[in-house]
Every structure is written in C-alpha cells, then in structure tokens.
Amino acid sequence: MDALMVIWTLAKKDLRLLVRDARAMIILLAMPLIFILVLGVSLGENFGKKAAAGLRVTVLDLDKGVSRDFDRPALQKWSETLRRDLNETADIRVEFVHSREEAEYLVRTGKRAAVLVIGKNFSKRVERSSFLASGWGDYFTIAACFPQAGDPVALALRACLDESQDALPLYVHDGLNPFHRDGVNLKSLDVEVLRDPTQQTAAAIIDQVAQGSLLRVVLPWMIGRAFEKIGDPVFLDLLEKEKDLPFPVKVFLKNFPNQKKALSTGLQNSVQNLFPRYNLTAKTWAALTKEQEIVADKSDLNTQFAEDGTGWLKRGASRYQLLVPSYLVMFAFFLVLTVGWLFVAERRQGTMKRLVVAPLTKGQILVGKMLPCLFLSLFQGFFLFGAGKLIFDMDWGAEPTWLLAVVPATSFAAIGLAMLVASLARTETQVAIYGTLLVLILAILSGCLMGDPGLWDERMQVISRFTPHAWALDAYKQLLTNPKPELKIVLQGCLVLAGFGAGFLALAWWYLKLDADS
User: Using alpha carbons only, what angle is made at residue 450 by residues 378 and 417, rounded to the nearest 5 degrees?
Assistant: First the structure.
C-alpha cells in the first residue's frame, strides 16, 4: 500500500511538470490541429472518399425526347434508363447538375475529372439505333414523288421523317448505327464527355463507365427489334424474293399467304429455342440476359451535385475521417520527446539518485513515470476527437463507443515507446535526435504523414505492419469510414497495440538505469 502511495506521489509530481511545460502542450494539442486544418483546406475533394461511395459520375441530362414505340407508347426517356443503369452498376454513384455552364465550370476548375452530357436528342437517337438497313425513308424518294420543293405533301412527309418531330417513332426514319471500332460512338447518340485535361486517367475511367452503360441500354433494344422482324410476315416477303430459295418453299410462300404469320411465328420461336438462356425479344439488358432487375433506390436517381463539406474549412468533408486519426496517431508518439526530456531533467537535477535509495523497485518507478504520460496521451486523443467534431464536423462513425478502446490502446503503445527511448537517452540532444528521427520515420512508414495509408503501394503497406501506427489506423479506418465496421479488425488492432506497448515497456524496464552516471 505504501508503494502505491509513493507511485501515486511520483505520478502527481510528474503530471504537474508536464502540464506546466508549454512547449509540450503546443506539440501535443495545437500542432495536430494545425496540420489537420492546413491539409483539410488544401486537399482535393476526392481525398478520403469512402470505399462504399465508389466512383462518382456527374451527369447533365438535357434529353427532351420520349421513347415512342408502337408496342410501348410514351415510355420513360431513354436518358432515365441510362441513369438507372449507371446507378445499378456496382460502386458507381451518380450525381446531377442542371446546366452546361455548371458542368463546364466543374471540369474547368478541376472539381470533376469529367461530366457526362446527355444531349436533347438522346432518346430519339437511341430509338433510331438499329441493325436494320433503314426505315421508310429508303422506300421512296420525296423529291421524285413531289418535284415541287414547296409542295405541301412533300413538306409534310419531310416533317414526319425529321428527327425534330414527336408524332411518329423515329425508327421509321432510318437505321442509325451507334457503334464504331472503340465501342459506342457517343456523338452519334448525342452524348458528350466533358474532360479536365489535367485528370485524363479519371476522365477515361468515366468514359468507359458511360460506354458500358450505353452498351447495356442500346444493344438489347437493337437485338429485340431485329429479332421481332423474324416473326413479321414482311420478312417472308423478302425471303420469297431470294434467288436460291428452293422451289417448293417459293410455291408455299406465294400460294398460301394466310399461313405466313404462323410460319413467321414458328421461325421466331425456333430461333429463340436455340438460345434458351436469352430472351431475344427483350428491350432491356436484364430481360435479355434473363437476370433479375436490380431495383435502385429512387432517391439515388435524383442525387444533386453538392460540394464535399461546407464553408472555408470544408466542415463535414470526408477527408477529416482520415486526417484526424492519422495525425492523432502521429502526435501521440511525439510523447517520446516529452518523456525523454523529463527523464533527462530528472537525471540532471539528481532526482534519480534519490529514487535509487528509496524503497522502490525499478518497475514501480517506471510505472510512476508512465502514469502521468499515459493520462496526458489519453487527454490528447480524446481532445483531438472532440475538436474534430466541433471544428471540422467529423463523424464518429457507426460504433463510436469502440473509440474508448482504440484511443487508450494507441496511447499505451505510444507511452511504451516513449519510456523505451527515455530509458536509453542520456542527454537532451540524444532525446531530440533519437526521438525526432524515430517519430518521423514511423509516421512515414505507416502512412500517417500522408494522411491516408491507402496511398502506399502494396510493399510499403506490408512494411507498415511492423509499426504500431498502422494497426491503430486500421482500427480507426474501420470505425470512421466503414458504415458497417468490422469489429474483429478493430479488436485485433487494439490487441496488437497492447502487445507493442507491453513489449516496449519490458525493454524500457530492462534498459532503465537510475543512476545519473550510467
């Protein structure tokens, strides 16, 4: 009991010394906030995005047309079908802007790598897309039938076959081929990708995402229309004109016109039976492939463009979910310097000699020195999380109570390392050199200094496993960026941090010399 009282007396004395040290307080409390503030304001909007958010595709929808099919009149615009497909694609998030001026501004200022612009004639161009040679336009020539340019009948026919009209479905006009060597010809469908020339890689990814969705929208429509023609008696009329057709078949087609419909239907069903895995008359990708439709949240289809964070500080931005824990962990280990200077001062002032003759073991003295530093480290950790909430409006995640385990585990590992360095260093110069190099090297290896360990390549991420920082960051990342944290990873991180701390303290006990001359 007397030993505990002496340990508590040592701890109170050192705690008073630490609190009075303004330099230590600035390093532990003010410096992390300054780093977080500077980087939070300076970093780009894509830094620190959650994995669940995935790739963001910004869309400007100017489509004015309405899909008009004789079998499916007045359906939704084809642009809505495209938007739905984008939303249903895994790891894709769609947002919308309202004008071309806004889209060009986002690209020009680098806020978005690219913006997908759906033109006003998109629905009409999709409707015209076909494997078929043409529509009605090739069966007669208006100029030949009506030589007078001003003939009202000619003008009416031209109006019916013009892309700007809405009275007739446009596949009666002509067959449009939307494909070329590189995939979908965006221009032919009145689609454009505005690109930021400084972000070519990201823009190319968005372009390929658009290509994939356009293919899934347009191709089933074209296949369905082409396959329907097999069941059309007009197809048999064309077949009858074939020169190499066997004579009995020609006789049948010519003399039994009432049976053509049944024959056409039979041909269509036979071809369908050859491809049982597909519905060849379908008009959507899911129906064509006979896969279950993915039902996207309707609210996702109307997500509007919004800045990540608000105000000059970008409060609430996702970047703070990484910056705050990264610099909390980094500066927790700056206690190496504070504890080292404390030990050196004790040796210089002769206090260590008095502790040698006191009825205390080396372990008790080590605990008495460790407790105030641990308390200070805990205060630093919870203070930074509180400041992160108040100043930067950061989110504490879905399981905030687990922070009560990760913060102490990180502090314990940091204090263990601080005690080890303090037991080895003999002068303030040694503390400054050993401590600063160690803290910076560990921060670099673990990724703390970059604010996001995920920016390292795979080799460096493996190396980072040898630092306690990396395990702390893994736990914080689960709690602060994962909507459904893997608590096993959090618990594993806490246990490894505790192991680091215990190992460091054991080495500190082994190397600690209490006499001033050693």
Answer: 40
Q: Where are the alpha helices (DSSP H) in 139-179?
A: 142-145, 152-160
362-392 vs 403-424: helix crossing angle, rounded to 10: 130
User: Which residue in the block uniquely carries the two structure tokens 């054991």?
Assistant: 506
Is the Cβ–Cβ distance between 3 and 364 less than 8 Å? yes
Nearest Cα to Cα of residue 421 among 504, 515, 319, 307: 504
Strands 191-195 and 114-118: antiparallel
Q: What is the pLDDT of residues 438-483, one digit of tens each?
A: 888 888 888 887 766 666 666 777 888 889 999 999 899 889 988 8
Residues linked to residue 116 through DSSP beta bridges, in sequence order: 59, 193
What is d(CA 17, CA 150) in angstroms, rounded to the nearest whole number? 100
Mean pLDDT of the 65-83 span: 65
Residue 321 makes CB contacts below 8 A (sequence gap 6+) with: 48, 50, 394, 395, 480, 481
Tally of CB atoms within 10 A around 302 = 11
CA 456 to chain centroid: 17
CA distances 113 to 40, 56, 66, 106, Å, are 20, 10, 30, 8
**Does residue 112 surpass a pLDDT of 90?**
no
CB 77, CB 350: distance < 8 Å = no
Structure-token pair, residue 2: 């007397």
Between the CA atoms of 415, 417, 418 and 423, what dihedral angle is there, to the nearest 10 degrees? 130
Q: Are 475 and 406 a contacting pair, CB within 8 Å?
A: yes
Q: What are the pLDDT digits (tens) for 32-44?
A: 888 888 887 777 5
Number of helices (H), then strands (E), in the chain:
22, 6
Owner of token pair 């700056």: 334
- Kindly give the pairing relationship between strand 179-180 and strand 183-184: antiparallel
The residue type at 293: E
The verdict on pTM exceeding 0.90 is no
- The Cα–Cα gap between 111 and 329 comes to 30
Amino acid 516: pLDDT: 45
Question: Token digits for 336?
Answer: 């190496």
Q: 372 is written with which tokens? A: 């105030």
The tokens for 396 are 């504490």
Nearest to 145 by CA among 134, 133, 156: 156
3-state helix, strand, coil in the chain (%, to 5): 65, 5, 30
One-letter identity of residue 369: K
Q: Of 132-146, 249-263, 342-356, which gets the smallest average pLDDT?
A: 132-146
pLDDT level of residue 491 (50, 70, 90 thresholds): very high
Distances (CA, A) of 468 to 334, 489, 502: 14, 14, 12
Residue 134, beta-bridge partner list: 174
Mean pLDDT of all residues in 37-63: 70
